[in-house]
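> call design_seq(struct)
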């Protein structure tokens, strides 16, 4: 399965967020308590749905039941400005009753439907162990002139799009770190 750069970047941030919520400093599993607390802070979290969706999406952990995996797999191929309407995903990403209540609040926000799409995609990837990106085919590796685009060191070339995506990811990460500091947590070293 091919995953878009948007979801690839958010996947690791979502995984880190879940890891941070799972255990306290003494190694005890406190995920349930922390998720309950985070869900109670939804009013505050709404301001972060566009800037750091992975930090808010965790409130939907175990809130989706994925009935149509092929639809979800297809969603993961889209960039953030290419998403299908949230209404078209409702059958594929069925909400549990408690999660449905949260969506009613979120859908009132200007970016609410977009965010729910992101949250469903992140939770789907989190629960699906085989969402590693597939290597590109030989046709996709060829550049426009038909020459093989392999670099000497085996890495793909870094382009302006990659730079912009990396910059956006850093901004989201910094905003998330700032929010965590405001909540009383220590800033993580990079």
């Amino acid at each position: 399965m091919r995953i878009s750069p948007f979801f690839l970047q958010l996947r690791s941030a979502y995984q880190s967020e879940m890891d941070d919520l799972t255990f306290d400093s003494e190694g005890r599993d406190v995920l349930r308590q922390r998720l309950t607390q985070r869900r109670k802070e939804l009013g505050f979290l709404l301001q972060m749905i566009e800037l750091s969706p992975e930090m808010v999406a965790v409130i939907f952990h175990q809130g989706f039941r994925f009935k149509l995996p092929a639809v979800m797999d297809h969603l993961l191929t889209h960039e953030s400005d290419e998403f299908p309407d949230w209404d078209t995903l409702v059958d594929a990403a069925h909400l549990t009753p408690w999660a449905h209540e949260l969506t009613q609040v979120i859908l009132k926000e200007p970016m609410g439907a977009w965010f729910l799409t992101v949250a469903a995609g992140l939770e789907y990837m989190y629960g699906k162990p085989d969402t590693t990106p597939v290597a590109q085919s030989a046709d996709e590796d060829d550049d426009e002139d038909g020459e093989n685009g392999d670099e000497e060191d085996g890495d793909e070339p870094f382009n302006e799009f990659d730079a912009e995506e990396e910059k956006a990811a850093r901004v989201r990460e910094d905003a998330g770190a700032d929010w965590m500091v405001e909540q009383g947590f220590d800033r993580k070293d990079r």
